[in-house]
Write a structure and sequence with these properties.
The protein has three helices and 22 strands. By secondary structure, the protein is α/β, with parallel strands linked by helices. Strand 1, helix 1 and strand 2 form a beta-alpha-beta unit. The longest helix is centred in the first third of the chain and has 12 residues. It starts with 12 loop residues before the first strand and ends with a strand. The structure holds coenzyme A.
Length: 210
């Protein structure tokens, strides 16, 4: 589903992770609009995030599954993709439907593909021929140009720019405002710091801060 689709009251969406990225995703979901059921948060089992109730913590997911069928990982990701990877696997194991929300303020080419559970935030642009894996964050104002291949569990942070034909392994982070030269390959689990220009390939697990 490319925009989160229509969601009935019973089919309202659970958000797994209640921090800053969750609040930004809520802003996207309200714009689509998608009904938010509430939040699942490891740190606390009650309270609210923006106006939405915290319904439980991670261990409550099996019980929540008997009530809700839709869920999305809304934990952020910088130095490691592990938490998002683990939560995504858990949602799949529990047979949740995992949507692919796209902000109406973003532009995703009809010739691009987005994997399950990936989110495209406000004013991001994903151009023709690009394939984005599962459970990725294409954050606000990020640009993923034509013919890129983005692996599963990657985060292209706010305002980052990937030129045409960039490839990433899974679990990659590209920091805010960074620019990656066309055709460059970023290896699995590598971290590119904010505000840097990447002109050469980065190996698996590498860290590049310019
Ligand atoms: C790469 C990064 C993850 C490293 O974080 P860290 O392990 O906590 O390391 P530090 O920030 O303490 O940096 C250690 C050193 O690396 C260098 N460094 C780190 N990031 C850098 C960057 N982006 N550009 C240039 N140098 C950098 C600096 O020399 C720094 O030393 P200093 O503290 O004396 O300035 C972090 O710096 C970063 O860029 N985070 C991304 C932030 C971002 O894009 N957020 C967007 C969320 S949407």
């Amino acid at each position: 589903m490319s925009s989160g689709g229509s969601v009935s009251a019973r089919g309202a969406l659970l958000l797994v992770g209640g921090g800053g990225h969750c609040r930004a995703v809520i802003d996207v979901l309200e714009r689509i609009p998608v009904a938010v059921a509430g939040i699942v948060d490891e740190a606390r089992a009650s309270g609210t995030v923006l106006l939405y109730p915290v319904l439980g913590c991670d261990e409550d997911l099996p019980d929540l599954r008997s009530v809700y069928s839709l869920a999305l990982v809304t934990v952020g990701q910088i130095k490691t993709p592990l938490v998002r990877q683990k939560l995504f696997a858990r949602l799949e194991e529990l047979c949740f439907d995992i949507p692919t929300p796209v902000s109406p303020l973003a532009r995703v080419s009809p010739h691009a593909l987005l994997g399950k559970g990936s989110v495209v935030m406000h004013q991001a642009l994903v151009n023709a021929g690009t394939v984005i894996g599962k459970n990725c964050i294409i954050n606000s104002q990020a640009l993923v140009e034509h013919d890129c291949r983005i692996g599963d569990h990657c985060h292209i942070a706010t305002g980052a720019k990937l030129c045409g034909g960039v490839e990433t392994g899974e679990g990659v982070f590209v920091g805010a405002g960074s620019v990656v030269r066309e055709g460059t390959r970023l290896g699995k689990n590598c971290v590119v710091g904010m505000g840097v220009c990447v002109r050469h390939d980065v190996p698996d697990g590498g860290r590049y801060v310019g």
